[in-house]
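Hey, I'm writing a tutorial for new members on how sequence and structure tokens pair up, and I'd like a real worked example in the thread rather than a made-up one. If someone can provide the structure for the chain below, I'll link this post from the tutorial.
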Amino acid sequence: MELVFIILYAFFLTFILFYSFVQFNLVLLYSKRKGENKEEELIDINDKEALPFVTIQLPIYNELYVIERLIDAVAEFDYPRNKFEVQVLDDSTDETVEVTAKKVTEMQSQGLDIKHVRRDDRKGFKAGALAYGMELARGEFIAIFDADFIPVPQFLNKTIPYFKNSKVGVVQTRWEHINQDYSLLTRLQAFGLDAHFSVEQGGRNRGGHFINFNGTAGVWRKVCIEDSGGWQSDTITEDLDLSYRAQLRNWEFKYLENVGSPAELPAAMNALKTQQFRWTKGAAECTIKNLPRVFKTKGVPFGTRIHAIFHLMNSFIFVCILMTALMSIPLLFIKKNFPEHDMLFKWASIYALSMVLLGVFYWVSLPKRNKSTIQSIGEFFRLFPLFLTVSMGLSLHNSIAVFEGYAGKKTAFIRTPKFNINKSSDSWKGNKYLVNNISLLTILEGVMVLYFLGGIAVGVYLHDYGMIPFHVMLTIGFAYTFVYTMKHSKLV
């Protein structure tokens, strides 16, 4: 029986190790090709008459605090005004409707081609709104921005030229963060997202592997959406779903790391949890839906299939973290009472390589602009352990999302509350969209703190100190998640 337990534990560690190797491969692809300047034929942005017409879609749902900011930003686009239209796809059920209507009327009076588009219901949620808007869209290309973004005026001028290549179906830009220094929580989010928007997106794109449209701050070729089956709402990450369907239809994606699109990071733990739940569950749903297609579609290179496995299944990492964490304490007793398995535990030291590979991955992705080497090293060794620690603390929450996704349990698309936070003096307190999230799950996160405190005590008692750093990180991670969930709840 104890051998079965050890094998299960090894399975989860092995997945983490293989995931780390794939991430390291992305580092190699990203670093090897980063300096290459491939000559590309581009649309001449100075030929105003020949520029294609673009539809800009702004899908919103109860975005009282940020909708005016978003519309103002889009109105500043320096693309010719007779060459684009704006659709505010408003599914709101509160006073956002009135605020938006007033803002749209104001912008129309200033000559902006903008429409306030309303539906009878929220069928299909964001995917449904995008599909509804596309039926009305006049543009050859469709740019999409979520409500928490503040796109720069040059956005279309920097993205549309890449559609000169008729095979390009999507141009995606890098997310920037307007409030990353607001708190430790936002700084750690920025740390993780910067890795995605450098090594992951850049490495996959340069290696010819599948990447994903990130749901916002990108432009689609309209016929690409239509050819790939359109927006579908059977997953809650419609962006990842359509991305895979499009690339399996041989459409090419272009990622522009040098073009930034500023956005606001969730400043409250409950808002972050909402976002994380949707992303991790949606990725699991897309795994069930699209991974079989990756293997059935002829002509997909072997390397691309491997990367697709770990791309689609990246949320399974949280399950592996949770399961190895829960199993680690009983494993201390097995190690003590079954010395015949000592050789297996010695071989297990190879899994420490995962930490080294992930460390390289995040080091390469860390923005080092205007920083000395000493400053960069200091920032890395401060943020990397904290990022891993808080990720561990979110593992229970995100694992439940993954299990729901694999099981096919359908839930509504829950939006991430926006705060309109731009500087440290701004506050999210009093935000009407933040609701009490003190649930059974939150209580279980508190129980986890006690469980891993017990793990530290067990290690000391058995004079087995190898797991203690892991249990300390788990204790701190779950304590951070539990305390800030409580603190950021409306009840506290």
